[in-house]
Design goal:
This protein has 27 helices and six strands. By secondary structure, it is mainly alpha-helical. A hairpin with a 4-residue loop joins β1 and β2 (216-219).
Length: 615
Protein backbone atom coordinates (compact mmCIF):
# COMPACT_ATOMS: atom_id res chain seq x y z
CA UNK A 1 0.00 0.00 0.00
CA UNK A 2 1.49 3.37 -0.99
CA UNK A 3 1.56 6.45 1.24
CA UNK A 4 -1.45 8.10 -0.37
CA UNK A 5 -3.67 5.05 0.03
CA UNK A 6 -2.46 4.62 3.62
CA UNK A 7 -3.36 8.24 4.47
CA UNK A 8 -6.82 7.80 2.94
CA UNK A 9 -7.40 4.57 4.82
CA UNK A 10 -6.37 6.12 8.16
CA UNK A 11 -8.62 9.14 7.66
CA UNK A 12 -11.56 6.88 6.79
CA UNK A 13 -10.81 4.83 9.89
CA UNK A 14 -10.93 7.97 12.09
CA UNK A 15 -14.16 9.13 10.47
CA UNK A 16 -15.74 5.77 11.28
CA UNK A 17 -15.34 6.45 15.02
CA UNK A 18 -15.24 10.26 15.22
CA UNK A 19 -17.62 11.10 12.41
CA UNK A 20 -16.92 13.28 9.36
CA UNK A 21 -16.00 16.96 9.59
CA UNK A 22 -18.84 19.31 8.68
CA UNK A 23 -16.61 21.97 7.11
CA UNK A 24 -12.81 21.78 7.18
CA UNK A 25 -12.57 25.53 6.43
CA UNK A 26 -14.68 26.50 9.41
CA UNK A 27 -12.63 28.21 12.15
CA UNK A 28 -14.65 26.45 14.86
CA UNK A 29 -13.47 23.13 13.47
CA UNK A 30 -9.80 24.12 13.67
CA UNK A 31 -9.13 22.38 17.01
CA UNK A 32 -10.86 19.21 15.85
CA UNK A 33 -8.84 19.21 12.64
CA UNK A 34 -5.62 19.68 14.62
CA UNK A 35 -6.55 16.77 16.93
CA UNK A 36 -7.17 14.50 13.99
CA UNK A 37 -3.86 15.45 12.44
CA UNK A 38 -2.11 14.45 15.66
CA UNK A 39 -3.98 11.15 15.69
CA UNK A 40 -3.03 10.61 12.06
CA UNK A 41 0.65 11.13 12.83
CA UNK A 42 0.33 8.83 15.84
CA UNK A 43 -1.22 6.10 13.68
CA UNK A 44 1.55 6.50 11.10
CA UNK A 45 4.18 6.07 13.80
CA UNK A 46 2.50 2.85 14.93
CA UNK A 47 2.23 1.46 11.39
CA UNK A 48 5.85 2.33 10.67
CA UNK A 49 7.20 0.83 13.86
CA UNK A 50 8.10 -2.75 14.72
CA UNK A 51 6.34 -3.10 18.05
CA UNK A 52 6.26 -6.54 19.54
CA UNK A 53 4.27 -7.77 22.46
CA UNK A 54 5.57 -6.80 25.88
CA UNK A 55 4.40 -10.14 27.24
CA UNK A 56 6.49 -13.26 27.02
CA UNK A 57 4.53 -16.33 26.01
CA UNK A 58 5.86 -18.16 28.99
CA UNK A 59 3.82 -19.77 31.74
CA UNK A 60 6.52 -19.02 34.30
CA UNK A 61 6.35 -15.30 33.46
CA UNK A 62 2.58 -15.34 33.91
CA UNK A 63 2.92 -17.02 37.33
CA UNK A 64 5.58 -14.49 38.37
CA UNK A 65 3.31 -11.62 37.31
CA UNK A 66 0.40 -13.03 39.30
CA UNK A 67 2.61 -13.48 42.39
CA UNK A 68 3.88 -9.91 42.07
CA UNK A 69 0.34 -8.55 41.89
CA UNK A 70 -0.74 -10.56 44.91
CA UNK A 71 2.25 -9.29 46.89
CA UNK A 72 1.71 -5.66 45.85
CA UNK A 73 -1.99 -5.79 46.72
CA UNK A 74 -1.15 -6.43 50.38
CA UNK A 75 -2.75 -9.87 50.52
CA UNK A 76 -1.51 -12.81 52.54
CA UNK A 77 1.79 -14.12 51.20
CA UNK A 78 0.42 -17.65 51.38
CA UNK A 79 -1.79 -16.79 48.38
CA UNK A 80 1.29 -16.18 46.20
CA UNK A 81 2.83 -19.47 47.37
CA UNK A 82 -0.45 -21.26 46.71
CA UNK A 83 -0.41 -20.03 43.08
CA UNK A 84 3.03 -21.57 42.56
CA UNK A 85 1.93 -24.86 44.13
CA UNK A 86 -1.19 -25.07 41.97
CA UNK A 87 0.84 -24.44 38.84
CA UNK A 88 3.25 -27.23 39.82
CA UNK A 89 0.29 -29.60 40.16
CA UNK A 90 -0.97 -28.60 36.71
CA UNK A 91 2.41 -29.26 35.15
CA UNK A 92 2.55 -32.70 36.70
CA UNK A 93 -0.80 -33.53 35.12
CA UNK A 94 0.38 -32.53 31.61
CA UNK A 95 3.90 -31.20 31.22
CA UNK A 96 3.61 -30.77 27.44
CA UNK A 97 0.52 -28.55 27.54
CA UNK A 98 0.92 -24.81 26.90
CA UNK A 99 -0.64 -23.21 29.99
CA UNK A 100 0.29 -19.63 29.04
CA UNK A 101 -3.00 -18.62 27.33
CA UNK A 102 -5.08 -19.73 30.33
CA UNK A 103 -2.74 -18.18 32.89
CA UNK A 104 -2.55 -14.94 30.90
CA UNK A 105 -6.35 -14.78 30.74
CA UNK A 106 -6.62 -15.28 34.51
CA UNK A 107 -3.93 -12.66 35.11
CA UNK A 108 -5.55 -10.09 32.84
CA UNK A 109 -9.03 -10.79 34.24
CA UNK A 110 -7.84 -10.26 37.82
CA UNK A 111 -5.87 -7.11 36.99
CA UNK A 112 -7.09 -4.05 38.90
CA UNK A 113 -4.21 -1.71 38.23
CA UNK A 114 -4.85 1.92 37.60
CA UNK A 115 -3.52 1.62 34.08
CA UNK A 116 -5.99 -1.10 33.07
CA UNK A 117 -8.89 0.78 34.64
CA UNK A 118 -7.86 3.99 32.93
CA UNK A 119 -7.47 2.24 29.60
CA UNK A 120 -10.86 0.52 29.92
CA UNK A 121 -12.42 3.83 30.91
CA UNK A 122 -11.24 5.54 27.76
CA UNK A 123 -8.77 8.04 29.30
CA UNK A 124 -6.32 9.84 27.09
CA UNK A 125 -3.08 8.30 25.85
CA UNK A 126 -0.90 10.67 27.86
CA UNK A 127 -2.63 9.89 31.15
CA UNK A 128 -2.39 6.17 30.46
CA UNK A 129 1.36 6.27 29.90
CA UNK A 130 1.81 8.55 32.92
CA UNK A 131 -0.01 6.03 35.11
CA UNK A 132 2.01 3.19 33.66
CA UNK A 133 5.27 5.07 34.30
CA UNK A 134 4.24 5.55 37.93
CA UNK A 135 3.60 1.83 38.32
CA UNK A 136 6.98 0.99 36.82
CA UNK A 137 8.66 3.37 39.28
CA UNK A 138 6.88 1.73 42.22
CA UNK A 139 7.89 -1.70 40.95
CA UNK A 140 11.51 -0.56 40.81
CA UNK A 141 11.37 0.76 44.36
CA UNK A 142 9.80 -2.50 45.57
CA UNK A 143 12.55 -4.55 43.88
CA UNK A 144 15.25 -2.43 45.55
CA UNK A 145 13.55 -2.90 48.91
CA UNK A 146 13.49 -6.68 48.39
CA UNK A 147 17.20 -6.64 47.55
CA UNK A 148 17.94 -4.75 50.77
CA UNK A 149 15.88 -7.25 52.76
CA UNK A 150 17.81 -10.10 51.16
CA UNK A 151 21.06 -8.76 52.61
CA UNK A 152 19.82 -9.22 56.17
CA UNK A 153 18.33 -12.70 55.73
CA UNK A 154 20.43 -15.24 57.60
CA UNK A 155 19.23 -18.42 55.86
CA UNK A 156 16.66 -18.74 53.06
CA UNK A 157 13.74 -21.01 53.90
CA UNK A 158 11.95 -23.52 51.71
CA UNK A 159 8.54 -22.73 50.35
CA UNK A 160 7.41 -26.21 51.28
CA UNK A 161 8.49 -26.26 54.94
CA UNK A 162 7.45 -22.90 56.29
CA UNK A 163 5.71 -22.86 59.64
CA UNK A 164 2.61 -20.87 60.37
CA UNK A 165 4.63 -18.41 62.48
CA UNK A 166 6.88 -17.56 59.54
CA UNK A 167 3.99 -16.82 57.21
CA UNK A 168 3.16 -13.45 58.81
CA UNK A 169 6.33 -11.80 60.15
CA UNK A 170 6.54 -8.16 61.00
CA UNK A 171 8.89 -7.45 58.13
CA UNK A 172 6.09 -7.23 55.55
CA UNK A 173 4.79 -9.39 52.69
CA UNK A 174 7.69 -8.70 50.28
CA UNK A 175 10.32 -9.90 52.72
CA UNK A 176 8.27 -12.97 53.59
CA UNK A 177 7.77 -13.87 49.93
CA UNK A 178 11.51 -13.65 49.34
CA UNK A 179 12.27 -15.79 52.40
CA UNK A 180 9.77 -18.47 51.37
CA UNK A 181 11.01 -18.94 47.78
CA UNK A 182 14.06 -21.25 47.61
CA UNK A 183 17.08 -19.46 46.19
CA UNK A 184 19.74 -22.14 46.71
CA UNK A 185 20.37 -25.68 45.42
CA UNK A 186 20.57 -28.64 47.78
CA UNK A 187 23.09 -30.35 45.45
CA UNK A 188 25.78 -28.99 43.20
CA UNK A 189 25.45 -29.04 39.42
CA UNK A 190 27.95 -31.85 38.93
CA UNK A 191 26.05 -34.16 41.25
CA UNK A 192 22.80 -33.32 39.48
CA UNK A 193 24.28 -34.07 36.07
CA UNK A 194 25.59 -37.46 37.20
CA UNK A 195 22.18 -38.16 38.73
CA UNK A 196 20.36 -37.19 35.54
CA UNK A 197 22.51 -39.54 33.44
CA UNK A 198 20.90 -42.45 35.31
CA UNK A 199 17.46 -40.88 35.08
CA UNK A 200 17.75 -40.45 31.31
CA UNK A 201 18.33 -44.21 31.11
CA UNK A 202 15.26 -45.00 33.22
CA UNK A 203 17.13 -45.58 36.51
CA UNK A 204 16.28 -43.77 39.72
CA UNK A 205 18.88 -41.35 41.01
CA UNK A 206 19.60 -39.80 44.38
CA UNK A 207 17.76 -36.53 43.83
CA UNK A 208 15.34 -37.54 41.06
CA UNK A 209 13.17 -40.63 41.32
CA UNK A 210 10.22 -42.24 39.56
CA UNK A 211 6.72 -41.34 40.77
CA UNK A 212 4.34 -44.22 40.12
CA UNK A 213 1.24 -42.06 40.57
CA UNK A 214 2.16 -39.36 38.06
CA UNK A 215 4.15 -41.74 35.81
CA UNK A 216 6.90 -39.13 35.73
CA UNK A 217 10.29 -38.49 37.31
CA UNK A 218 10.23 -35.92 40.09
CA UNK A 219 12.57 -34.30 42.59
CA UNK A 220 12.63 -35.90 46.02
CA UNK A 221 10.56 -34.02 48.56
CA UNK A 222 13.44 -33.24 50.89
CA UNK A 223 15.59 -31.75 48.12
CA UNK A 224 15.24 -28.00 47.54
CA UNK A 225 16.35 -26.22 44.39
CA UNK A 226 15.90 -22.78 42.94
CA UNK A 227 13.24 -22.42 40.31
CA UNK A 228 15.58 -22.28 37.26
CA UNK A 229 17.44 -25.36 38.43
CA UNK A 230 14.21 -27.18 39.23
CA UNK A 231 12.79 -26.45 35.76
CA UNK A 232 15.95 -27.62 33.99
CA UNK A 233 16.15 -30.79 36.09
CA UNK A 234 12.51 -31.68 35.44
CA UNK A 235 12.84 -30.97 31.71
CA UNK A 236 15.86 -33.27 31.44
CA UNK A 237 14.22 -35.90 33.65
CA UNK A 238 11.23 -35.90 31.30
CA UNK A 239 13.46 -37.65 28.79
CA UNK A 240 13.76 -40.64 31.12
CA UNK A 241 9.98 -40.95 31.46
CA UNK A 242 9.41 -40.64 27.71
CA UNK A 243 12.15 -43.14 26.87
CA UNK A 244 10.84 -45.52 29.52
CA UNK A 245 7.39 -45.50 27.96
CA UNK A 246 8.80 -46.14 24.49
CA UNK A 247 10.96 -49.00 25.80
CA UNK A 248 7.95 -50.68 27.42
CA UNK A 249 5.97 -50.46 24.18
CA UNK A 250 8.87 -51.86 22.14
CA UNK A 251 9.22 -54.80 24.54
CA UNK A 252 5.49 -55.50 24.26
CA UNK A 253 5.69 -55.40 20.45
CA UNK A 254 8.59 -57.86 20.44
CA UNK A 255 6.61 -60.34 22.53
CA UNK A 256 3.06 -60.09 21.17
CA UNK A 257 2.95 -57.35 18.53
CA UNK A 258 1.29 -57.75 15.16
CA UNK A 259 2.99 -57.22 11.80
CA UNK A 260 2.36 -53.48 11.48
CA UNK A 261 3.24 -52.89 15.13
CA UNK A 262 6.51 -54.80 14.73
CA UNK A 263 7.46 -52.56 11.82
CA UNK A 264 6.55 -49.48 13.84
CA UNK A 265 8.53 -50.86 16.77
CA UNK A 266 11.64 -51.29 14.61
CA UNK A 267 11.64 -47.56 13.87
CA UNK A 268 11.17 -46.83 17.56
CA UNK A 269 14.16 -49.03 18.37
CA UNK A 270 16.31 -47.05 15.95
CA UNK A 271 15.22 -43.80 17.58
CA UNK A 272 15.97 -45.22 21.03
CA UNK A 273 19.43 -46.30 19.83
CA UNK A 274 20.13 -42.73 18.68
CA UNK A 275 18.84 -41.41 22.01
CA UNK A 276 21.06 -43.69 24.11
CA UNK A 277 24.00 -42.80 21.87
CA UNK A 278 23.41 -39.16 22.79
CA UNK A 279 23.23 -40.09 26.48
CA UNK A 280 26.50 -41.98 26.17
CA UNK A 281 28.11 -38.93 24.59
CA UNK A 282 26.96 -36.71 27.46
CA UNK A 283 28.22 -39.27 29.97
CA UNK A 284 31.59 -39.29 28.23
CA UNK A 285 31.82 -35.52 28.60
CA UNK A 286 31.03 -35.82 32.31
CA UNK A 287 33.70 -38.49 32.74
CA UNK A 288 36.38 -35.96 31.81
CA UNK A 289 35.29 -33.59 34.58
CA UNK A 290 36.94 -34.14 38.00
CA UNK A 291 34.69 -35.12 40.86
CA UNK A 292 35.71 -32.05 42.87
CA UNK A 293 36.47 -28.74 41.20
CA UNK A 294 39.24 -26.56 42.56
CA UNK A 295 38.58 -22.89 43.18
CA UNK A 296 38.21 -21.01 39.90
CA UNK A 297 37.43 -24.13 37.81
CA UNK A 298 34.13 -24.50 35.90
CA UNK A 299 32.24 -27.38 34.32
CA UNK A 300 34.02 -27.53 30.97
CA UNK A 301 31.93 -29.16 28.22
CA UNK A 302 28.78 -29.97 30.19
CA UNK A 303 26.24 -28.12 32.30
CA UNK A 304 22.53 -28.25 32.95
CA UNK A 305 21.86 -25.57 30.37
CA UNK A 306 24.01 -27.27 27.74
CA UNK A 307 22.45 -30.68 28.36
CA UNK A 308 19.02 -29.08 28.08
CA UNK A 309 20.01 -27.61 24.71
CA UNK A 310 21.60 -30.83 23.44
CA UNK A 311 18.47 -32.83 24.20
CA UNK A 312 15.86 -30.39 22.82
CA UNK A 313 15.47 -32.20 19.47
CA UNK A 314 15.45 -35.69 20.93
CA UNK A 315 12.89 -34.55 23.51
CA UNK A 316 10.58 -33.42 20.72
CA UNK A 317 11.00 -36.75 18.92
CA UNK A 318 10.31 -38.74 22.08
CA UNK A 319 7.18 -36.72 22.71
CA UNK A 320 5.94 -37.43 19.19
CA UNK A 321 6.68 -41.13 19.62
CA UNK A 322 4.67 -41.16 22.85
CA UNK A 323 1.77 -39.41 21.14
CA UNK A 324 1.79 -42.06 18.41
CA UNK A 325 2.08 -44.89 20.95
CA UNK A 326 -0.89 -43.63 22.98
CA UNK A 327 -2.94 -43.50 19.77
CA UNK A 328 -2.21 -47.10 18.74
CA UNK A 329 -1.68 -48.87 22.08
CA UNK A 330 -5.27 -50.07 22.41
CA UNK A 331 -6.16 -49.89 18.71
CA UNK A 332 -6.77 -52.56 16.08
CA UNK A 333 -3.36 -52.15 14.46
CA UNK A 334 -2.97 -51.98 10.71
CA UNK A 335 -4.86 -49.10 9.15
CA UNK A 336 -5.66 -47.62 12.57
CA UNK A 337 -1.95 -47.37 13.35
CA UNK A 338 -1.22 -45.75 9.99
CA UNK A 339 -4.11 -43.30 10.46
CA UNK A 340 -2.75 -42.20 13.84
CA UNK A 341 0.69 -41.49 12.41
CA UNK A 342 -0.78 -39.88 9.30
CA UNK A 343 -2.55 -37.24 11.41
CA UNK A 344 0.87 -36.14 12.68
CA UNK A 345 2.03 -35.68 9.07
CA UNK A 346 -0.68 -33.03 8.65
CA UNK A 347 0.75 -31.01 11.55
CA UNK A 348 1.89 -27.47 10.74
CA UNK A 349 5.26 -27.86 12.44
CA UNK A 350 7.95 -28.81 9.84
CA UNK A 351 9.89 -30.80 12.44
CA UNK A 352 6.79 -32.82 13.32
CA UNK A 353 5.97 -33.38 9.65
CA UNK A 354 9.44 -34.64 8.80
CA UNK A 355 9.63 -37.00 11.77
CA UNK A 356 6.08 -38.30 11.25
CA UNK A 357 6.80 -39.03 7.58
CA UNK A 358 9.78 -41.14 8.59
CA UNK A 359 7.66 -43.05 11.10
CA UNK A 360 4.89 -43.51 8.52
CA UNK A 361 7.30 -44.79 5.86
CA UNK A 362 8.62 -47.50 8.18
CA UNK A 363 5.28 -48.46 9.74
CA UNK A 364 3.54 -48.70 6.34
CA UNK A 365 6.09 -51.12 4.87
CA UNK A 366 4.02 -54.25 5.77
CA UNK A 367 0.87 -52.52 4.52
CA UNK A 368 2.55 -51.78 1.19
CA UNK A 369 3.76 -55.39 0.92
CA UNK A 370 0.26 -56.80 1.49
CA UNK A 371 -1.24 -54.27 -0.91
CA UNK A 372 1.25 -54.98 -3.72
CA UNK A 373 0.72 -58.73 -3.47
CA UNK A 374 -3.05 -58.22 -3.44
CA UNK A 375 -3.13 -56.04 -6.58
CA UNK A 376 -0.59 -58.17 -8.51
CA UNK A 377 -1.65 -61.76 -7.69
CA UNK A 378 -5.04 -61.54 -5.98
CA UNK A 379 -3.66 -63.32 -2.92
CA UNK A 380 -4.50 -61.94 0.53
CA UNK A 381 -1.59 -62.66 2.88
CA UNK A 382 -2.67 -60.99 6.14
CA UNK A 383 -1.95 -63.26 9.14
CA UNK A 384 -3.03 -60.68 11.76
CA UNK A 385 -6.08 -59.23 9.93
CA UNK A 386 -4.55 -55.76 9.70
CA UNK A 387 -5.37 -55.05 6.03
CA UNK A 388 -8.68 -53.40 5.16
CA UNK A 389 -9.66 -56.31 2.85
CA UNK A 390 -10.85 -59.47 4.60
CA UNK A 391 -11.83 -62.90 3.30
CA UNK A 392 -15.35 -63.80 4.39
CA UNK A 393 -16.74 -67.11 5.59
CA UNK A 394 -18.49 -67.78 2.23
CA UNK A 395 -15.62 -68.78 -0.07
CA UNK A 396 -17.99 -70.44 -2.55
CA UNK A 397 -19.35 -67.04 -3.61
CA UNK A 398 -16.18 -66.05 -5.41
CA UNK A 399 -17.33 -62.68 -6.74
CA UNK A 400 -20.04 -61.20 -4.55
CA UNK A 401 -19.19 -62.20 -0.99
CA UNK A 402 -15.81 -63.89 -0.84
CA UNK A 403 -14.03 -60.63 0.06
CA UNK A 404 -15.23 -57.57 1.95
CA UNK A 405 -13.89 -54.16 2.99
CA UNK A 406 -13.49 -53.26 6.69
CA UNK A 407 -13.99 -49.49 6.72
CA UNK A 408 -12.44 -48.96 10.17
CA UNK A 409 -9.12 -50.34 8.91
CA UNK A 410 -8.78 -47.99 5.93
CA UNK A 411 -5.95 -45.46 6.50
CA UNK A 412 -7.15 -41.88 6.50
CA UNK A 413 -4.78 -40.91 3.65
CA UNK A 414 -6.49 -43.43 1.32
CA UNK A 415 -9.58 -41.88 -0.28
CA UNK A 416 -12.73 -43.78 -1.21
CA UNK A 417 -11.95 -44.07 -4.94
CA UNK A 418 -8.47 -45.50 -4.35
CA UNK A 419 -9.81 -47.95 -1.77
CA UNK A 420 -12.45 -49.20 -4.22
CA UNK A 421 -9.84 -49.61 -6.95
CA UNK A 422 -7.56 -51.65 -4.68
CA UNK A 423 -10.45 -53.90 -3.69
CA UNK A 424 -11.61 -54.42 -7.27
CA UNK A 425 -8.17 -55.26 -8.66
CA UNK A 426 -7.47 -57.93 -6.07
CA UNK A 427 -10.95 -59.43 -6.31
CA UNK A 428 -10.75 -59.58 -10.12
CA UNK A 429 -7.36 -61.32 -10.02
CA UNK A 430 -8.62 -63.84 -7.47
CA UNK A 431 -11.68 -64.49 -9.68
CA UNK A 432 -9.53 -65.00 -12.76
CA UNK A 433 -7.36 -67.50 -10.90
CA UNK A 434 -10.07 -69.35 -8.99
CA UNK A 435 -13.13 -69.32 -11.26
CA UNK A 436 -11.92 -68.61 -14.80
CA UNK A 437 -8.82 -70.88 -14.75
CA UNK A 438 -6.68 -68.02 -16.05
CA UNK A 439 -3.76 -68.36 -13.61
CA UNK A 440 -1.26 -68.34 -16.48
CA UNK A 441 -2.13 -64.74 -17.42
CA UNK A 442 -2.14 -63.64 -13.77
CA UNK A 443 1.33 -65.10 -13.26
CA UNK A 444 2.95 -64.00 -16.51
CA UNK A 445 1.17 -60.87 -17.71
CA UNK A 446 -0.46 -59.20 -14.70
CA UNK A 447 0.88 -55.66 -14.03
CA UNK A 448 3.94 -55.53 -11.79
CA UNK A 449 5.20 -52.40 -9.98
CA UNK A 450 8.64 -50.91 -10.36
CA UNK A 451 10.83 -50.70 -7.21
CA UNK A 452 10.36 -46.93 -7.02
CA UNK A 453 6.56 -47.33 -7.20
CA UNK A 454 6.42 -48.95 -3.78
CA UNK A 455 8.62 -46.28 -2.18
CA UNK A 456 6.54 -43.28 -3.27
CA UNK A 457 2.84 -43.19 -2.21
CA UNK A 458 1.86 -41.16 -5.29
CA UNK A 459 3.58 -43.56 -7.69
CA UNK A 460 1.97 -46.48 -5.88
CA UNK A 461 -1.45 -44.88 -6.32
CA UNK A 462 -0.78 -44.37 -10.04
CA UNK A 463 0.24 -48.04 -10.36
CA UNK A 464 -3.02 -49.14 -8.71
CA UNK A 465 -5.02 -47.18 -11.29
CA UNK A 466 -3.02 -48.70 -14.17
CA UNK A 467 -3.44 -52.21 -12.75
CA UNK A 468 -7.19 -51.66 -12.31
CA UNK A 469 -7.63 -50.73 -15.97
CA UNK A 470 -5.57 -53.70 -17.21
CA UNK A 471 -7.10 -56.34 -14.92
CA UNK A 472 -10.70 -55.22 -15.48
CA UNK A 473 -10.20 -55.29 -19.26
CA UNK A 474 -8.79 -58.82 -19.03
CA UNK A 475 -11.67 -60.03 -16.86
CA UNK A 476 -14.35 -58.66 -19.20
CA UNK A 477 -12.56 -60.17 -22.23
CA UNK A 478 -12.45 -63.61 -20.59
CA UNK A 479 -16.11 -63.49 -19.52
CA UNK A 480 -17.28 -62.37 -22.95
CA UNK A 481 -15.12 -64.48 -25.23
CA UNK A 482 -14.54 -67.64 -23.21
CA UNK A 483 -17.85 -67.92 -21.38
CA UNK A 484 -20.23 -65.87 -23.55
CA UNK A 485 -21.57 -63.63 -20.77
CA UNK A 486 -23.18 -61.05 -23.04
CA UNK A 487 -24.66 -63.77 -25.31
CA UNK A 488 -26.33 -65.36 -22.29
CA UNK A 489 -27.68 -61.97 -21.21
CA UNK A 490 -29.17 -61.46 -24.69
CA UNK A 491 -30.70 -64.97 -24.58
CA UNK A 492 -32.35 -64.19 -21.23
CA UNK A 493 -33.95 -61.12 -22.78
CA UNK A 494 -35.23 -63.02 -25.85
CA UNK A 495 -36.42 -66.25 -24.20
CA UNK A 496 -37.05 -65.53 -20.55
CA UNK A 497 -38.44 -62.01 -21.06
CA UNK A 498 -40.39 -63.22 -24.17
CA UNK A 499 -38.94 -60.63 -26.53
CA UNK A 500 -39.13 -63.33 -29.23
CA UNK A 501 -42.91 -63.30 -29.77
CA UNK A 502 -43.38 -66.55 -31.75
CA UNK A 503 -41.68 -68.53 -28.96
CA UNK A 504 -44.07 -67.20 -26.30
CA UNK A 505 -47.08 -67.89 -28.54
CA UNK A 506 -45.94 -71.46 -29.29
CA UNK A 507 -45.27 -72.07 -25.58
CA UNK A 508 -48.79 -70.91 -24.64
CA UNK A 509 -50.43 -73.10 -27.31
CA UNK A 510 -48.49 -76.20 -26.30
CA UNK A 511 -49.06 -75.65 -22.58
CA UNK A 512 -52.77 -75.05 -23.13
CA UNK A 513 -53.13 -78.37 -24.96
CA UNK A 514 -51.14 -80.30 -22.37
CA UNK A 515 -52.94 -78.84 -19.38
CA UNK A 516 -56.37 -79.14 -20.95
CA UNK A 517 -55.74 -82.75 -22.02
CA UNK A 518 -54.51 -83.78 -18.55
CA UNK A 519 -57.55 -85.11 -16.69
CA UNK A 520 -56.23 -84.74 -13.21
CA UNK A 521 -52.65 -83.35 -13.12
CA UNK A 522 -49.60 -82.66 -15.26
CA UNK A 523 -46.18 -84.12 -14.56
CA UNK A 524 -42.69 -82.61 -14.77
CA UNK A 525 -41.75 -84.55 -17.90
CA UNK A 526 -44.88 -83.18 -19.58
CA UNK A 527 -43.54 -79.65 -19.06
CA UNK A 528 -40.18 -80.63 -20.56
CA UNK A 529 -41.94 -82.09 -23.61
CA UNK A 530 -44.03 -78.92 -23.94
CA UNK A 531 -40.91 -76.74 -23.90
CA UNK A 532 -39.21 -78.90 -26.59
CA UNK A 533 -42.30 -78.73 -28.75
CA UNK A 534 -42.53 -74.93 -28.36
CA UNK A 535 -38.86 -74.54 -29.32
CA UNK A 536 -39.17 -76.73 -32.44
CA UNK A 537 -42.28 -74.89 -33.62
CA UNK A 538 -40.71 -71.40 -33.33
CA UNK A 539 -37.59 -69.57 -34.39
CA UNK A 540 -36.11 -70.45 -31.00
CA UNK A 541 -34.87 -73.66 -32.63
CA UNK A 542 -32.08 -71.60 -34.25
CA UNK A 543 -30.73 -70.44 -30.86
CA UNK A 544 -27.34 -71.56 -29.56
CA UNK A 545 -27.66 -75.06 -28.03
CA UNK A 546 -26.00 -73.77 -24.84
CA UNK A 547 -28.79 -71.22 -24.48
CA UNK A 548 -31.54 -73.76 -25.12
CA UNK A 549 -30.02 -76.21 -22.64
CA UNK A 550 -30.06 -73.46 -19.99
CA UNK A 551 -33.84 -72.96 -20.51
CA UNK A 552 -35.99 -75.01 -18.12
CA UNK A 553 -39.81 -75.18 -17.80
CA UNK A 554 -40.75 -76.44 -14.34
CA UNK A 555 -43.13 -75.97 -11.43
CA UNK A 556 -42.46 -72.95 -9.24
CA UNK A 557 -43.60 -74.99 -6.22
CA UNK A 558 -42.94 -78.70 -6.79
CA UNK A 559 -44.77 -79.61 -3.57
CA UNK A 560 -48.09 -78.38 -5.00
CA UNK A 561 -47.56 -79.74 -8.52
CA UNK A 562 -50.40 -82.26 -8.11
CA UNK A 563 -53.22 -79.69 -8.41
CA UNK A 564 -56.83 -80.38 -9.22
CA UNK A 565 -57.60 -77.39 -11.45
CA UNK A 566 -56.27 -75.85 -14.63
CA UNK A 567 -55.87 -72.40 -13.13
CA UNK A 568 -53.79 -73.71 -10.25
CA UNK A 569 -51.53 -75.47 -12.74
CA UNK A 570 -51.01 -72.30 -14.78
CA UNK A 571 -50.12 -70.35 -11.62
CA UNK A 572 -47.49 -72.92 -10.69
CA UNK A 573 -45.67 -73.10 -14.03
CA UNK A 574 -42.50 -70.99 -14.43
CA UNK A 575 -39.77 -70.63 -17.06
CA UNK A 576 -36.17 -70.52 -15.73
CA UNK A 577 -32.71 -69.89 -17.11
CA UNK A 578 -29.89 -71.89 -15.49
CA UNK A 579 -26.30 -70.63 -15.87
CA UNK A 580 -23.10 -72.58 -15.29
CA UNK A 581 -19.89 -71.56 -13.51
CA UNK A 582 -18.23 -69.09 -13.52
CA UNK A 583 -21.22 -67.06 -14.72
CA UNK A 584 -23.18 -68.16 -11.66
CA UNK A 585 -20.78 -66.04 -9.55
CA UNK A 586 -21.40 -62.96 -11.69
CA UNK A 587 -25.17 -63.40 -12.12
CA UNK A 588 -26.00 -65.09 -8.84
CA UNK A 589 -29.04 -67.16 -7.89
CA UNK A 590 -30.88 -64.22 -6.31
CA UNK A 591 -30.66 -62.23 -9.54
CA UNK A 592 -31.87 -65.21 -11.64
CA UNK A 593 -34.74 -65.71 -9.19
CA UNK A 594 -35.90 -62.15 -9.83
CA UNK A 595 -35.80 -62.78 -13.59
CA UNK A 596 -37.86 -65.94 -13.03
CA UNK A 597 -40.52 -64.00 -11.10
CA UNK A 598 -40.71 -61.43 -13.90
CA UNK A 599 -41.03 -64.25 -16.44
CA UNK A 600 -43.96 -65.82 -14.52
CA UNK A 601 -45.74 -62.49 -14.45
CA UNK A 602 -45.19 -61.98 -18.19
CA UNK A 603 -46.38 -65.54 -18.89
CA UNK A 604 -49.70 -64.77 -17.12
CA UNK A 605 -50.13 -61.58 -19.11
CA UNK A 606 -49.39 -63.45 -22.34
CA UNK A 607 -51.99 -66.11 -21.40
CA UNK A 608 -54.63 -63.47 -20.69
CA UNK A 609 -53.98 -61.97 -24.12
CA UNK A 610 -54.01 -65.44 -25.66
CA UNK A 611 -57.37 -66.33 -24.08
CA UNK A 612 -58.97 -63.02 -25.08
CA UNK A 613 -57.84 -63.42 -28.67
CA UNK A 614 -59.18 -66.98 -28.73
CA UNK A 615 -62.73 -65.94 -27.76
Amino acid sequence: MNAQNLDSALYRYMETFLGPLVDANDISQHNELERRDRLHRFFLSIVGSNISSVYRRDAESAIAEMQKRLASSGRNTQSAIRVSQLFSMLKQRDASYDWWPILNLISESSSTTAASVAYAGGTSTSSFFATRAGEMERDRERAMQMAENAMVVDEPQSAYSVSQQQQQPAGGSDETLYRMLPTYDAADEMALLRDLIYVMQGIDGTCVRWNEKTKMYGICGDMQFSRPTREMVLSIAELGALARNVQQYVMWVENSGRLFEQSFGSELRQELAAYFELVAGIEAKLANIPAELRPGETLAGASLRRVLGWTSDVRARLRLMNVAIEGVRDGLGGGVLLSTISTLVEDGDPFTQQFARRLLATASAPFTGILVRWVTTGELVDPYNEFFVRESSEPDKLWAKRFRVVRDMIPVHYDRVLTRKIFQVGRSLAFLRGACADSEWVTAQAPQPEPEDTADPRRLEAFVYRAAASVNARLMRVLRENFGLMRHVAAIRRLLMFEQGDFSLSLLEVLDRHIARASRSILAHDLSAALDSAVRSSNAQYEDPDHLSALVLAFANPASAQSDGMEETWENVSLRYVLSAPLTHVVDADTLRKYTDISRFLLRLKRVDFVLNSV
